[in-house]
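Protein Entry — a single chain follows
Fields — amino acid sequence, structure tokens
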Amino acid sequence: MSSNKIEKINKTKKIAILFMIIFLFLLILIISVFRTITEYRHMPTLQSEKKELSVRGDIISSDNFKIASSKKLYKASIDTRHLAEDKKELFLQLFSIYSKIPYKKLKEKLEKTKDKPGNLVLSYNIDSRTAKNLKELAFKLRKLNVFISRKVKGGKILRGLSVRESGEKRLFSYEDTLTPVVGYISKFESENGTTKVKGIKGLEKSYNKELNESKDGILQGNRDVLSYIAFDKNSLIRKRIDGATLNLNIPLKLQKNNEITLDLHKKKLSADEIIVSIMDSKTGKVLTLASSNRFNPEKIRQKDIPSLNVNAIEYQFEPGSIVKPISISLVMDKNRIKKNELFFAYNTKGKANSKGEFPKGKYKIGRYTIGDDHRFKKHYLTLKDVVIYSSNIGTLKIAQRLSGPEFYEGYKRFGLARKTGIDLPYEKKGVIHSIRQYSAGDRDGEDNIFKATDSYGQGITSTFMQMMKAYTVFNSEGYMSTPKIVSYLSHDNSKYKAYDNKPEKVISKETAERMKQLLIQTVEEGTGKAAKIDGLEIGGKTGTAQIARGGKYLKKYISSFFGFVSDGKNSYTIGVTVMNPNSTGKYWYYRYASSSAVPVFKEIIQNLIKLNYLTPKNDIISKN
């Protein structure tokens, strides 16, 4: 074979091999491209999203102090697999300085992850300021190569110090102030894994839905080369909306002053508890609802458990003589008491003492004997005597002039045996007897024992706040106002009321005015003398009742004084109830409202004067 032919064959082989190589390369390229297209790739997303956690709304006093508020909490964590071994000490030292978490505590946490390296939460309880500082630290730590990258399928990753929103914490700035009314909370985990809170008692409970009506903020858009969100027309921006704010009718300064007053008197009287409230008589605005038994909602202890309830609405007790103005005014409203009428005191058995006072009156209804606590120098009492000296016999004889249905409906109209409507949860209603029981003997004109005892507050139960509401009638021309603690709610730049507070007509203006004057005379001349302050119109009624338990009366007492005060411009209804004051030994007389509740009532008025809610005027009493 010639050399030319051999050379031609070799050339053809070379071209064939070259084409085969090119074909093989193209085949490999095609397969590679196909696999790249069809297989899942860990490509970084072009979209970025940032959420801003919303928090529960605030509770603010009328003088603009934050009683309760929420702060955001942040979680700081690291992946221990990315922490450089030779930089551990540096990390612990710097993180301890920035977070103020003890170095020893952090080191112990890190040591526990030796056998199981991975995600480690260093703290769940970091505040906003510390979180900001830690985010700056995270940037510095990367520069210092404290964290190293790890190989994973498809490349390398680097995880440093992570600081993220983890939830919220409820703060009570003034510790036990306004408790138990403000209530307390518990924590729960939301659907997105953040720590949230919900109300368990008090205002926190009754307005839980509104306080938690919030939306997280969202920033969403394309990422730039530095992984920041670049905003354009397609970006999503939703501002953070926190829960509604409760704006109270209660001013913090007045509340605090009254709580200090209660603390001093509780100690003096050795009482179980003292409750006080002040209401605007015409509007129902609650300016104070205070108890001597309080707690710190952030640090509830075992001994605080009895103080968690709002006894002003949850504790039912026999009100005693503070009910007398209610039963008497119902008869007055029917025009069944004659002008200048006299009522027999049933005190003719026995001689008068050295002061000229006859024995205490006794009156029998069936097998029951009812007595008066006051001795009189006469056998016939005026209506004024019955009220200002708190005659049981005079009151029950007047109450018999009402039929069973009139008595029942009248008590219900005054708010007994029904909830007041105050904006607090777990309110009790109290108990009165039935129409049938009150009607027994009506046809024959016989005395009714239920009307008799209930007319002076024995045999029925009420709550402190029911009596507060009832007493607004005598100081607002016969209208009764519903007590309200929250003035209005503010949410997302809007304000609204959560209720419609319309006064109820209970008795006529004329009847209310007559009873008002009798209550003023009770303070001027009767059992409420210790409440008198010159230059103010003050009226009220004392009540001392035994505590009943298990169908028996204990040698324990509840002393109350309910009434009103006015300076001619401002007018307030005030109630004071002292639970189980000292009733034995040297200070046995503290059981009586005139020696326990009335002095507290007077000091509460003095607090109103001191803080400019009242201005005494020299001629105000002479006008009456």
